[in-house]
């Protein structure tokens, strides 16, 4: 089994980052603060891109660096690619009228 | 002197401050330059072509092209004026030939008078007074040539890192920026602050979503409040335009590199600030009044940000990039730092330093930041950066009002 390089910055993060291209169907190990989890990848993940470490519900915050980087626009299953198609930013949203 | 970094206690770094003396130029106002340029400074777009042609005639003279200096009012006028002044006042500049047209709102004479107060050689050329372009070019080149010869007789003297104001910047970011190059710059920034120097954090747009972490590090309540004020003002500009800021930032290249939202980009960008206390929040192109870590309110756009920091007195800029950029300044060396080894190898024309070893796991963050410190010292002492060699003389002013 190939040991893929990934980085999971914080155990509270629901996403981790690929440090090399990850093959679809591969099982990768993510580690943070001595904790380890196995994730079965549903898609190929490009270098620098993120995948869900656990299931994320629509509307739920998506966290990296132990901080909020946006919200899920739909339900995301563990192992799925997380990017602009299913993550939306919560800041600088002049396209919404619920600001202020 | 031994320092134990808070972030990684197991990586104890021994550091002797005496290693970090630099040889640089001491200016009449006490500031320290690491370059010795003569700047032909056009204070109006109408004079930029003549200024460039004069600079082309004289070895050692530099200039830049821009489109500003007329029909500007209020705070927008002030900000542009401050930027012109700051470029001339930057300690990397030995002397300045201020070049104007004659009828513009940003009067060359006013910039000239302010620059005179620095004690450095300053001259004034007006195209209308000289009777046209060719005479003005000849006069500017003549004055610049004289200054270059005087400048060449200046000697570098021993100075210290505490004399430095280092601007930090990221451009063409990717998902590695926040993992390798930005944290390395952050550790460098902490080292510089420990040695009494000044580090500028900027690009307010790209701190949206990370402001709470920076506010916690403010030295006092006033600075803490200002953090939220400048972030609020920047975010409001997006609200005012009725658009999602993501349509412009993160950029298509950032997104291709794996960044999904402005908040994600910001959290990575803020790593450049290290862990030092935030001393003050300064306006665009304003000189810091305190040593240590300061935040300059600039947009995220690379050239406008860099120009603001250099006009604020930065002698050197550290610029991290994941996608690769050519950015450079006419008067300040810019050390380009790759976030990943792939881009370092592909764009070696432009990139000076590789932090991608952190991603590969072949080098620690501590080791990369030590190596960066060594590179900074070499560049301060005269080693040229790729952007200088490529004559990448970028300049752009953050305009905050309409042109009338």
Please give the number of β-strands of chain B.
16
The biggest beta sheet of chain A, please?
4 strands, antiparallel
Query: Which structural class best describes the helix and strand composition of chain B?
Result: alpha/beta
Question: Shape of chain A, please?
Answer: globular
Strand residues, percent of chain B:
15-25%
Order of helices and strands of chain A: EEEEEEEEE
Largest sheet, spatial ordering of strands of chain A: 1-2-5-8
N-C termini distance of chain A: 51 Å
Round the Cα radius of gyration of chain A to an integer and report it. Answer: 14 Å
Q: Which pair of protein chains has the largest interface, and what are the residue counts?
A: A-B, 31 and 35 residues
Oligomeric state of this protein: heterodimer
GO molecular function, one term (chain A): lyase activity
Keywords (chain A): Lyase
Protein name (chain A): D-galactarate dehydratase
Pfam families (chain A): SAF (PF08666)
Question: What would your notes on this structure say?
Answer:
- The complex is a heterodimer of chains A (100) and B (404).
- Chain A is mostly beta strands and 100 residues long.
- Chain A has a single domain, classed as Roll (Archaeosine Trna-guanine Transglycosylase, Chain: A, domain 4).
- Chain A contains no helices and nine strands.
- The model of chain A has no long low-confidence stretch (mean pLDDT 93).
- Chain B is 38% helix and 17% strand.
- At the A-B interface, strand 7 and strand 9 of A face helix 8 and helix 10 of B.
Question: What's the topology here?
Answer:
The complex is a heterodimer of chains A (100) and B (404).
Chain A: E1 6-7, E2 15-18, E3 27-32, E4 35-40, E5 50-52, E6 61-64, E7 67-72, E8 81-82, E9 87-88
Antiparallel strand pairs in A: 1-2, 2-5, 3-4, 5-8, 6-7, 7-9
Chain B: E1 2-3, E2 13-14, E3 21-26, E4 32-33, E5 37-42, H1 48-57, E6 61-62, H2 74-89, E7 93-100, H3 108-116, E8 122-126, H4 127-130, H5 133-152, E9 157-160, E10 165-170, H6 181-194, E11 198-201, H7 211-215, H8 221-241, H9 252-256, H10 262-269, E12 278-282, E13 292-296, H11 302-311, E14 316-321, E15 334-338, H12 341-346, E16 353-354, H13 357-360, H14 365-380, H15 386-389
Parallel strand pairs in B: 5-6, 5-7, 7-8, 10-11, 10-14, 11-13, 12-13, 14-15, 15-16
Antiparallel strand pairs in B: 1-2, 3-4, 3-9
Helix pairs in contact in B: 1-5, 2-3, 2-11, 6-14
């Amino acid at each position: 089994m190939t040991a893929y390089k990934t980085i999971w910055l914080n155990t509270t993060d629901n996403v981790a980052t690929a440090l090399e291209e990850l093959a679809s169907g591969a099982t990768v190990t993510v580690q943070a603060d001595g904790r380890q989890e196995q994730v079965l990848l549903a898609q190929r993940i490009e270098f620098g891109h993120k995948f869900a470490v656990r299931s994320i519900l629509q509307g739920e915050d998506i966290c990296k660096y132990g901080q909020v980087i946006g919200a899920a626009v739909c339900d995301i299953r563990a192992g799925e690619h997380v990017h602009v198609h299913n993550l939306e930013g919560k800041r600088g949203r002049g396209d919404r009228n619920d600001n202020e | 002197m031994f320092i134990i970094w808070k972030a990684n206690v197991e990586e104890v770094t021994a550091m002797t401050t005496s290693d970090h003396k630099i040889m640089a130029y001491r200016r009449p106002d006490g500031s320290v330059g690491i370059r010795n340029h003569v700047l032909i400074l056009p204070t109006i777009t109408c004079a930029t072509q003549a200024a460039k042609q004069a600079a082309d005639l004289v070895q050692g003279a530099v200039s830049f092209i821009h489109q500003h200096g007329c029909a500007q009012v209020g705070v927008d006028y002030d900000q542009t004026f401050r930027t012109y002044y700051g470029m001339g006042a930057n300690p990397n500049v030995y002397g300045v030939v201020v070049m104007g047209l004659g009828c513009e709102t940003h009067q060359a004479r006013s910039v000239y008078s302010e620059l005179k107060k620095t004690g450095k050689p300053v001259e004034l050329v007006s195209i209308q007074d000289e009777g046209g372009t060719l005479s003005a070019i000849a006069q500017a080149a003549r004055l610049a040539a004289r200054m270059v010869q005087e400048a060449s007789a200046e000697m570098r003297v021993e100075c210290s890192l505490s004399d430095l104001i280092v601007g930090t910047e990221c451009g063409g970011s990717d998902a590695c920026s926040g993992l390798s190059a930005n944290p390395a710059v952050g550790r460098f920034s902490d080292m510089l602050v420990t040695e009494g120097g000044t580090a500028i954090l900027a690009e307010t747009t790209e701190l949206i979503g990370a402001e709470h972490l920076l506010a916690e590090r403010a030295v006092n309540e006033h600075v803490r409040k200002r953090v939220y004020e400048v972030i609020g003002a920047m975010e409001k500009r997006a609200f005012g335009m009725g658009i999602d800021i993501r349509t412009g930032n993160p950029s298509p290249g950032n997104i291709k590199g794996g960044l999904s939202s402005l908040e994600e980009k910001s959290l990575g960008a803020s790593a450049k600030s290290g862990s030092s206390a935030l001393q003050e929040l300064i306006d665009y192109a304003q000189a810091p009044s305190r040593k240590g870590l300061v935040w300059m309110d600039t947009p995220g756009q690379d050239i406008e940000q860099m120009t603001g920091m250099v006009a604020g007195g930065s002698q050197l800029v550290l610029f991290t990039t994941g996608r690769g950029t050519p950015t450079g300044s006419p008067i300040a060396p810019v050390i380009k730092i790759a976030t990943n080894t792939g881009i370092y190898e592909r764009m070696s024309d432009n990139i000076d330093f590789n932090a991608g070893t952190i991603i590969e796991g072949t080098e620690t963050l501590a080791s990369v930041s030590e190596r960066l410190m060594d590179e900074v010292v070499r560049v301060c002492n005269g080693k040229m950066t790729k952007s200088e060699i490529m004559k990448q003389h970028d300049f752009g002013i953050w305009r905050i009002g309409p042109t009338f």
